């Protein structure tokens, strides 16, 4: 697969290893350059028992163990967006294995919005400086000898990006599997019409491009899945496939979103993920707390 319109060689076929987290229905990935031992981790998960206020790293430890077992070199930790349904384990993995942590540059919009929601003080930097790299639309980076690029795909959140690595694209929450449709667009900064336009950018990639989901919920009782293709999404996606118009999508998405509950982990997730996966700073006694804004979301 090759396409001169894009800054990557789509004939490169990275090895993609998924790690499914059943507590949050999140799929994290280790993506290996086929020409070297370099790899990237996409959308890692930190475990939280919210009721008990307990943080653990079982899911991240599986990824770390795999990278050690395969003798890989971690070069990048990629966040497709500021997740509202799970906490990132990127800084934990980075401490163990190194690598650079990257997210879209519109993280600053998310930090400004939720810095106010959580009444963060001036010590909370809203300039994205918690991350090593802030990607802009079309930015290119290397994973070993494999070139990757970031595609700006807002709509679910203002900071969403799809990362294309060879013939594989990691779509975050921009798309779900064809029978799952698309993600909600009613979070602060989200917009259904913008999401439709972003999905069209993804569907303009070559039909045989592999697409990897960030979430799957097994609709209608099927087994969990996370890989499809652009062609399958164009033809079969229940929200945008088969030539559905922007007007049809916006009407459906707006009505559907009005019926959805907030994600169970949205309050801890946003506080941690807007800090690049770090917990809020401890108080003077050394204890760390997460805030619950009353009627703030």
TrEMBL record:
InterPro entries recorded: Metallo-B-lactamas, Mito_Persulfide_Diox, POD-like_MBL-fold, RibonucZ/Hydroxyglut_hydro
Keyword Transmembrane: no
A biological-process GO annotation: hydrogen sulfide metabolic process
Domain Metallo-beta-lactamase: start-end pairs: 25-215
Assigned keywords, A-Z: Metal-binding
Domain of life (superkingdom): Bacteria
Signal peptide: none
GO molecular function annotation: metal ion binding; sulfur dioxygenase activity
UniProt protein name: Beta-lactamase-like protein
Biological source species: Roseibium aggregatum (strain ATCC 25650 / DSM 13394 / JCM 20685 / NBRC 16684 / NCIMB 2208 / IAM 12614 / B1) (Stappia aggregata)
